[in-house]
Known about the structure:
By secondary structure, the chain is of the alpha+beta class. The protein is built from ten helices and 21 strands. About 30% of the residues lie in helices and about 25% in strands. Strands 7-8-6-16-17-18-15-19 form an eight-stranded mixed sheet, with helices on both faces. Strands 10-4-3-14-21-20 form a six-stranded mixed sheet. A three-stranded antiparallel sheet has the order 11-12-13, with no helix packed on it. About 45% of the residues are buried.
Amino acid sequence: MQSIPETGHIMVPAAAPTYDLAVAGAGIFGLSIAHRAIRQGLKVVVLEAQHVGAGSSGGLLGALMPHMPARWNPKKEFQFQALRSLENHIRELEQETGADCCYARCGRILPLTTEDKLEHHLERAKESKLRWHPEQTGFSYVVEPAGSRSDWLEASAAPYGIVYETLAARASPRDYLAALAGFVRHRGTLLEGARVTGFDEQTGKISLADKDPVSAARLVLSGGFAAFDLIQHFTGEQIGRGEKGQALLLEGKGLEHHPAIYCDGLYVVPHDKGTVAIGSTADRDFEDAAPSPARSAELVARATAFCPGLKGRQVLTDWAGIRPRCNKRDPLIGRLPGYETLFAATGGFKISFGIAHLVADCLVSEITGTAPQLELPETFRPDHHFGANRLAADGWVKA
Ligand SMILES: Cc1cc2nc3c(=O)[nH]c(=O)nc-3n(C[C@H](O)[C@H](O)[C@H](O)COP(=O)(O)OP(=O)(O)OC[C@H]3O[C@@H](n4cnc5c(N)ncnc54)[C@H](O)[C@@H]3O)c2cc1C
């Protein structure tokens, strides 16, 4: 209900909120939601505490990798459909903005290091025929013999052969983000240096640190790992945390045509413009959010061991970010418990770039009461994330 303030003896209605939707955070989730909402005809403002890409979306890797075709579930289906539709989404965005997101369906190599793994992936190759619908999509998941693609992956790293799959893709995180930000600036409003500190659901007033408040009919919290503190502020529950990751970029002229490799827990991802990204580390506990030179040296050593083509390549830059990770592992997308007009979208952890456009479609559909392209998996919904933690904190159930 809107409040009706009194002015002298004349009752005047409260001013309507300036925006239909405010989005807190200009990472891949926040900007994708803003992009979708603007396309749906909403008047949107993005409020970013620092600058576009200040969070974990401002990185280097841009791996758009599928879940394995095994033990299939709604989450894997959602991600599969997201990766399937992402190319068209990016091509449309590029047409709208004139930007180049450096997207390519590059494919991926997985080395097979034991006989057990070979058996296991032969099963997955069979299941991919059921789950990836190769006759319609053209995507394949094939086991190739030892020595395959040894011009790129060191043969001794794959004594039992390799998997080569063609669904995996990559894009430049910074270019993709810049394209979305360009769209929002042009068709909506993007305020940088605007940190959201509070929201009054009755009036739509959004408080900002060091700035005048703005007003919106609805607010989405998409501040990456920092959103967890805001969510706790509003709901009393801490449902996630940040996890540090580090990656780097090498000079990689002539390597652009190679597929991505996932080996020894690391991705090697060739990009357009003659670069190769290597990542990532994962540190749950960390004191310093900046990249560590020792961790960068370790990344280079591990990657060149299985990918000798990287030897001697110059390190162009390194980078570290803090991924948002929900305690329940899956992302949190939807209306916060106890609220009508307050929503959250965070916790994409390692797969945000591949799913953000479909997550945005689901959330904006929930907000506007329209049908989404694809239903969210139940494990992405607030019901999955809230409640158990509160009970645990109250001592009702064991954590
Ligand atoms: C080393 C590394 C490699 C990765 N590689 C990949 C990969 O290859 N593929 C992939 O899909 N994912 C990858 N990820 C994960 C991915 O980067 C994250 O999941 C994703 O960026 C999260 O996006 P987000 O929009 O939720 O949050 P963020 O990108 O963190 O954005 C949140 C934004 O909100 C702003 N903000 C915070 N608080 C407030 C507030 N109160 N008010 C306003 N604004 C606020 C922040 O400044 C920030 O700009 C990687 C992550 C790391 C660290």
